Amino acid sequence: MILQQTINGLTLGSIYALIALGYTLVYGILLLINFAHSEIFMMGAYFGVFALQFFAALHVFQGAPALQILGAIFLAMLGTAVLGVVVEFVAYRPLRHAPRLAPLISAIGVSIFLQNLMMTIVSPEAEPFPDVVPVNIYTVGSGATISSLQIFIIVTSVLLMAVLNLFIQRTKLGKAMRATSQDRETAELMGINVNRVISVTFFIGAALGGAAGVLNGMYYGSVKYNMGFIPGIKAFTAAVLGGIGDVRGAMVGGYMLGILESVGAGYLSSAYKDVFAFVILILVLIFRPQGLLGRKAADKM
Amino acid sequence: MGWAVPIAAIVAAVLLPIIFQVFEQYHLVHVMCLIGIYVMLALGLNIIIGYAGILNLGYAAFYGIGAYTAALLAINAHISFWILLPICGLFAAAAGMIVGVPTLRLRGDYIAIVTLGFVEIVRLGLNNLDVITNGPKGLPRVGETIPQPQLSMGAFVLRMDGDLHYYYFILLLVLGTIFVVSRLHNSRAGRSWVAIREDELAAETMGVNTTVMKIQAFAVGTFIAGLAGCVYTHWIGFITPELFTFWESVLIVCMVVLGGMGSVPGVILGTVLIAGIPEVLRDVLQRVAENLTAGTAATWREYFDNIILARMLLFGAIMIIMVIFRPQGILLARRPDIRRNIG
């Protein structure tokens, strides 16, 4: 039982961690809670469906499910990445020096807009996710099972996170991102093009969110215009749990939340599984407000 | 602003529903009641966000606590509306203090997240405590009713019945709230809140007990949410947990921020816009659709029907545009002019 719940939790946690990275990257640099991120995730799922329908219509990659799904993830990531940059450009950039709550309002405007866009042009009903990946179920240990879908989700997410980590630690642009998140003004004085760094941050964060959307659609077998909300706030919780603004914190927080949630649902009550997430969140905030991996920030004098 | 605008606004608020009623636009009277309730909520949240600068993303939870307290006590204990009204406010304020006391020591964004978590916990709790709250099916259960409030003075009995009666009662409450909120803003407490919003550390240095003042702001703000919840339950007569979501909280935050944080007329304007625009858009688009498509093919008709469905799409775009052009809100908050008080 505990093994089974851990496997389910790892799958769920992978998706949370990918979304949480988008929140934490943007927060780290702009100190902005990007509420439109849950809609980016939703759009990623739709882009995945569109890509698969497109492949089927053009008869490409037929008979090669791995290529189909990887192609769909790639196109969805590209689509959401561009969308993320556009959203930043339209809704956040004009408000860079506005009061702190103003971007929150435009973020909510973007959320309403994207949700209703998909509701209108696609359908208000749930759309089935094409089942291209064959689902094989393997038995692990005593009675616990893991499906090929779960393995795929976990492996893809871990790979994406490894690439992100390399990018942030090893490339020049990654270094610029770290510098900007430490101190935007000083980074600007050192010759870093902060606007470009912000665009790149949105590009990467949204791409990861889009990948999570496709994986989520695959896992649950359907996509819907309002599917982003609950995973969005859970992932946000995960980002806070790990220490918002901290990239590794978001990964740890995502997996922790996924596992705690599945174990809680398995042992206590599935009706209250969402409550655990928020109770944990509140406890963490009261006793360790900087998050598990975050550093304590001193008050500015 | 002189006296002309507020007086015009009050006259419009008093007369419009009668005009709508005479011209049989009952739907608009209903919308005005709803706007009234939202104005109360937005004014209450304005104390927390606009005055004290605490980002509360879970305000609908306190509204929900007021509404469910009213429904449960009215159905099971048959308590009169007039007694319930303050009780609901106190329950909501108590919940506000329970959330506030441990968390208001935290800074800024963290409070936003705790309140976000709280509104979800309340919604899930209401959904799952079937025995008490009837879960997602809502209250009252089949066969139960929430008794309508009535005023009796000797032989004269006025039963509150229908949107128009409720509208004027809500209007009275709104005017009362405006009075209380404005008086608070200019009081010692109000000045402490504004000081906390501007710079918490400086406020503390100047001798403001920031934690106590923040908890007070929370208590007053959530008390108003409780009142609004009680009135809403009695007016609508049926509530479900889905009315009190994070989404609802966010909309109320938008009303406060869009209109102009800390400014009472601004908050009212923001509320009228956000609660009213989707309704107006529906009417306007309906007319456009009827005129444009009178003789054209059915596909066009269908196309416009979709646009009417998607009026929230336009609403989202309008929100983005409004906040980009007026990031401080439509009306700016004025600080009380000290010189005038001396002079």
Order of helices and strands of chain B: HHHHHHEEHHHHHHHHH
SSE order of chain A, as H and E? Answer: HHHHEEEHHHHEHHH
First-last Cα distance of chain A: 52 Å
Q: Roughly how many Å is the radius of gyration of chain A? A: 19 Å
Helix proportion of chain B: over 70%
Oligomer: heterodimer
Biggest interface, chains and residues, is:
A-B, 46 and 45 residues
* Largest sheet, strands/sense/barrel of chain A: 2 strands, antiparallel
Number of strands of chain B: 2
Mean pLDDT of chain A: 89
Query: What structural class is derived from the secondary structure elements of chain B?
Result: mainly alpha
Helical fraction of chain A: over 70%
- How many DSSP-defined strands of chain A? 4
What portion of the residues of chain B fall into strands of 2 or more residues?
under 5%
Main sheet: strand order of chain B: 1-2
Task: Explain what the structure shows.
The complex is a heterodimer of chains A (301) and B (343). By secondary structure, chain A is mainly alpha-helical. In chain A, 72% of the residues lie in helices and 4% in strands. Chain A is built from eleven helices and four strands, in the order ααααβββααααβααα. Chain A has helices at residues 2-30, 37-58, 65-92, 102-121, 148-170, 172-182, 184-189, 194-220, 229-242, 247-267, 273-287, and strands spanning 127-128, 137-140, 144-147, 222-223. In chain A, helix 1 packs parallel to helix 5 (148-170), helix 3 (65-92) crosses helix 8 (194-220) and helix 5 crosses helix 6 (172-182). Chain A is globular, with a radius of gyration of 19 Å. In chain B, strand 1 (150-153) and strand 2 form a beta hairpin. Chain B has a two-stranded antiparallel ribbon with strand order 1-2. The mean pLDDT of chain B is 85. In chain B, 74% of the residues lie in helices and 2% in strands. Chain B has 343 residues and is mostly helical. The longest helix of chain B is centred in the last third of the chain and has 29 residues, at 264-292. Chain B starts with a helix and ends with a helix. Chains A and B meet through helix 4, helix 9 and helix 11 of A and helix 5, helix 11, helix 13 and helix 14 of B.
